[in-house]
Amino acid sequence: MSVLPWLRPRPPVVAVPGNGLTGIIDIGSNSVRLVVYAGQTRTPAVIFNEKVMAGLGRGIACDGRLSGGSIKVAVAALARFGMLARDMGIADLRIVATAAVREASNAARFIDAVRDTCGLDIEVISGEAEARGAALGVIAGIPDADGIVGDLGGGSLELIRVERGQVHDRISLPIGALRLDAVRKRGARALRPFIATALARVDWAAKGAGKPFYMVGGSWRALAQLDIWSTDYPLPVIQQYTMATSAPARLARSLSRVDPKTLKAVTAISTSRLPSLPGAALLLGEVVKRLGSSSIVASAYGLREGLLFERMPLALQAEDPLIAAARDEGARSGRFPEHGDLLMRWMDDVFADGESAGMRRLRLATCLLSDIAWRAHPDFRAERGLDIALHGNWVAITPGERAILAAALVACFGGLPGTIEAARLARLADPASLATARAWGLALRLGQRLTGGTAAPLAASRLTVEDDRLVLTLAPADVPLFGEAVSRRLKALAGVLGLAAAERVG
C-alpha cells in the first residue's frame, strides 16, 4: 500500500513518566482525532483537540474495504498526531480504532502501514468494548444517568442500558452515519426499512421505556447544535442539552427545507457533517420511538472519556465531577486554599435549613468558585463569573443549574440584577432558584469582604438568622474588621432575605 511520499518511519512514542499528560487517538469511521488531557483528576482538562475527517467508513459501506484515498488522509493525520505526541512528551498515549477498521477486509494493511510509517500501534476495540466505553463516558459526565445510551459513529450504532453508574445490556448495530447516508442515496424509501431491521435486534428495548435517551456521536451532537440554533436557545452548550422526543422529526423537516448555505451559518457544525444529518435525524426519531424514551439528552462525553474513566482509581470515579472541577478551578485561580469550604460552613446557618441536596451541591460549587475573579479588572469580575458558570467545561450540571451558578457568581462579584444577562438566566431557571442563588452570592460577597479571603475571621464568626434579623457575630478580637464596607454588604444580604441587619460581639 502506498502512503504519502514525504512521510518517514518514526521511532515508537516514548513515554515521559510524571508529566501528567494523557492522550487518546480515536480512529473512527468518520474522523481521526487526537485529544490530550492534563492532570490525574476526575475531569482532566483538555489541552489539545484536533480532528481530521478521513471518512474511513465510506469504503466499508460500499465494498467492505478502506478506500485508498481515506487511508492516505488517515495516515497523514496519524503521522502528525504521533509527532505531536512525542513533542508534547505524552506519558500515556492510547490509539484505538472502531467500526471501520474493525470490519474492513484490508484492515491489516492499514494497521501495518500506520505502525511502519507513524510508529503507532493501533488497538482495534470490539463492538462490545466500544459500547461499554461510550456508556462509561456518559456516566463520567452524568453520574446519575438512568436510561439508554446511544453512540452513533460513522460505521455503527451502539445502544447501552445504564443505571446507577453501571453498564447493563448493550448491542452494536451496523447502522452508522456513513451507512445511513449510503442507503439514503439509493432512494427515500430504502432508509426506514433498513433502520427498522436493525432496531428489531434490540430485544431489551422495553427497558428504555419512560427513561431518557442519552445521545453520543458527532452527527447527533450536530443535531443538538442545530436545535439550539433554530430555537434561539440562550445557552449554546451541548452537555446535558435536552430535547423532546418530537424534535428529531421537526429537525428532519427543517433539514429538507433549509438551504445548505444557511446551515453552514451554524458555526458549531462542521460542513462535512451536513450530508449525514438527515439520516441521523431519521434514525434518532426511530430509536426513541422503538425505546419509548421520555426525552433526548445530549452528552459531550463519549468513548474517549469513557476510556479515561475506566482506568481511573475507584475513589476518583466516585468523586462528584462538578465539585471536583470547581475545587480544582478554585485552587488554581483563588488566593487562599480551602476558603470555599470554610465559606460553605459559615453560610450554613442561613441557608441549610430545608435546602435540597441539589441546591446544596450548587451552593458548594459556588463557594469553591467564589474567589476566581480577583485577578480580573473590578468592572469585569461579574462578567468573569457569568462566563465561567455558563461556559465553563463543567459536567454533571444541567443548563438550569448553570444559570443558578451564574446568578450566584454574578452577585458575588458585584453584578446587579435587571440586566440583559439576568433576562437570559431567567429563560434557563425558575425565579425562586435564581433569587436564592443571588442571596448566596451576596453572602459570599459579605464573607469575602469581612475576611479579605483569610480563614481565621470565618472560623471565629457566625452568620445566623434570629427571628426577623440577620445577625453577624464577631469575636471580640475581630471587632475592628466590621468596617463600613462590611456593614453595607450585611445590609444588602439582609435586604434580599427580607430581614433586618444586626452585628453582635460574642
How would you portray this structure in words?
With about 500 residues, the protein is α/β, with parallel strands linked by helices. The protein is about 50% helix and about 15% strand. Strand 2 (about 30-40) and strand 3 (about 45-50) form a beta hairpin. Helix 14 (about 320-335) packs parallel to helix 16 (about 355-370), helix 15 (about 340-350) runs antiparallel to helix 16 (about 355-370) and helix 20 (about 430-450) packs antiparallel against helix 22. The longest helix has 21 residues, at about 70-90. The chain is elongated and about 85 Å long. Residues about 1-10 have low confidence and may be disordered.
Rg over alpha carbons: 26 Å
Largest sheet: 6 strands, mixed
Overall geometry: elongated
Helix tally equals: 22
Structural class: alpha/beta
Percentage of β-strand residues: 15-25%
Unreliably modeled segments: 1-9
Q: For the largest beta sheet, what order do the strands appear in spatially? A: 8-7-6-9-11-10
**Topology, number of strands:** 14
Helix content: 40-55%
Estimate the mean pLDDT confidence. 91
- Distance N terminus to C terminus? 83 Å
